[in-house]
Amino acid sequence: xxxxxxxxxxxxxxxxxxxxxxxxxxxxxxxxxxxxxxxxxxxxxxxxxxxxxxxxxxxxxxxxxxxxxxxxxxxxxxxxxxxxxxxxxxxxxxxxxxxxxxxxxxxxxxxxxxxxxxxxxxxxxxxxxxxxxxxxxxxxxxxxxxxxxxxxxxxxxxxxxxxxxxxxxxxxxxxxxxxxxxxxxxxxxxxxxxxxxxxxxxxxxxxxxxxxxxxxxxxxxxxxxxxxxxxxxxxxxxxx
Length: 240
Known about the structure:
alpha+beta, T-fold, 7-stranded antiparallel β-sheet, 3-stranded antiparallel β-sheet, 6 helices, 32% helix, 25% strand, globular
């Protein structure tokens, strides 16, 4: 998936076979959806070698979820890039992490933590997680405590301008640096963080109004803005 993945399971019955199953699943998703692999299914669709209607069941599910998310976000989530290619990365990562968690639960695991590139799913006991300073990534700006929830951050400070406003495709999003969302699971947090970031400074109000979500935004001046219920997760503030 182009990023480090950590799976921490604290149940006494965990074994290597269960963990191998989870990492095999992540590999399968990467092989299918990576826009960086020329032989991935998504790359073949973008080259016209496969029509979306002839794609695999998993790809059809993701396309359906992407269309639903587009409707729910007023069009701010859109997997069609300015170049006309399909890139479901803003949803696939959270969806895959969530599904990996379900694999662990099905195997009887009740206490685990999955982190893929900073997008996190927790299950079991409460866990503390940090939000990086997007201007100085070796610093943590806030420490949160979440339990049986997901967290995701969208931003341009690592991958550059890879998120865009579908209504202004020719303009970079240059007024915010990062936007973190806490939700009932990492799938919800990831897709809505992407849609909110696409809205620039207005994104934090989108999260404020969306049921079940809380968020924290850092703008280009380094000023932090949080939703009204975000403070319940904060255990330590280092930068705001």
